[in-house]
Design brief:
303 residues, alpha/beta, two-stranded antiparallel sheet, 9 helices
Length: 303
């Protein structure tokens, strides 16, 4: 016989907004699975959601990087979102604990920078596997139990990079745009089952993304590249997310405010640049936008 977590309703007073106003958020204790918790956003999100009374499964490919979360009452879980076997094993562990995932937060992500025409096939596939196929595999695995349980919530962490495409990040932008589109379809298709789908589109957030993206250039940007003369522009794009980023803790608090709402918005943009970049994408004429971005990342030097 399975024993499921008891749902406990509680209330909290949200932090004051810019006008000094506050709003009360009513939420309930949920059993939550978060991917990509080895560091940064995922790790802090797991800690804060646990502190707020939720039952949290924090996952990562390497258990060594998250095992200490167990000391906080969080359940560390080995999970590689690109592996069907790993997903199945992880969810079997959840079931063996007598739990049922009510909220899924697809946070795991990977970005390799470099010229699109020279991007190695393996790097293209790895980005799609991590940023799109993995989240969808978890959705497919969890939707039946969510429906049986009367509903649930899926939070997909996209990016404003999926709205405003920039040079030297083409595949990463493509994976996030695809995740946004897939989320739109899921939102409509799962609504009849009481399953909400929320897309978070962060701007620049303090994380290890910039250093990881820069490290990826060792695999994607060779000395014989057609863009060798503008390597500084490629490096600039790799580091862009860490130029004046929103602190991780601030991002996490705003994110929790969004996902804990009884009726979360379909799309939420959080962090530095998360509102300005879509405005540029939607309102600046394409020739002007291409010119500005080309100069920003030094493509004009190749002419």
């Amino acid at each position: 016989m399975m024993i499921y977590c008891t749902r406990i309703e509680y209330k909290r007073k949200a932090p004051e907004n810019a006008q000094g106003q506050t709003r009360e958020i009513v939420s309930m204790s949920k059993t939550i699975l978060i991917t990509g918790c080895s560091s940064g956003i995922g790790r802090q999100l797991a800690v804060r959601l646990k502190e707020r009374g939720h039952r949290v499964y924090a996952s990562a490919r390497s258990l060594d990087k998250i095992v200490t979360l167990g000391e906080l009452g969080i359940v560390p879980l080995t999970l590689d979102v690109t592996s069907a076997a790993s997903i199945e094993q992880a969810l079997q562990t959840v079931a063996a604990n007598g739990d049922r995932i009510e909220w899924l937060i697809n946070n795991a992500g990977y970005g390799a920078m470099g010229p699109l025409a020279e991007m190695p096939q393996a790097e293209i596939e790895r980005q799609f596997a991590t940023n799109l196929y993995g989240p969808l595999a978890l959705v497919r695995a969890l939707v039946p139990s969510m429906k049986e349980n009367g509903g649930g919530k899926i939070i997909n962490i996209g990016s404003v990079s999926g709205i405003l495409v920039t040079p030297f990040s083409g595949i990463y932008c493509a994976t996030k745009a695809a995740l946004h589109a897939a989320s739109d379809a899921l939102r409509m298709e799962l609504a009849p089952f009481g399953i909400d789908v929320v897309v978070i589109q962060p701007g620049a957030i303090e994380s290890e993304f910039g250093s990881n993206a820069e490290a990826s250039l060792a695999r994607t940007f060779g000395s014989g590249s057609l863009y060798s003369e503008v390597k500084d522009g490629v490096l600039k794009r790799a580091r862009a997310s860490q130029n004046n980023p929103t602190p991780t803790a601030e991002f996490v608090e705003e994110l929790i405010g969004v996902i804990e709402k009884k009726h979360s918005p379909s799309v939420a943009r959080i962090g530095n640049g998360s509102r300005a970049m879509p405005l540029v994408a939607n309102w600046v004429p394409i020739p002007l936008r291409d010119f500005v971005l080309g100069r920003s990342f030094h493509l004009n030097r190749l002419k």
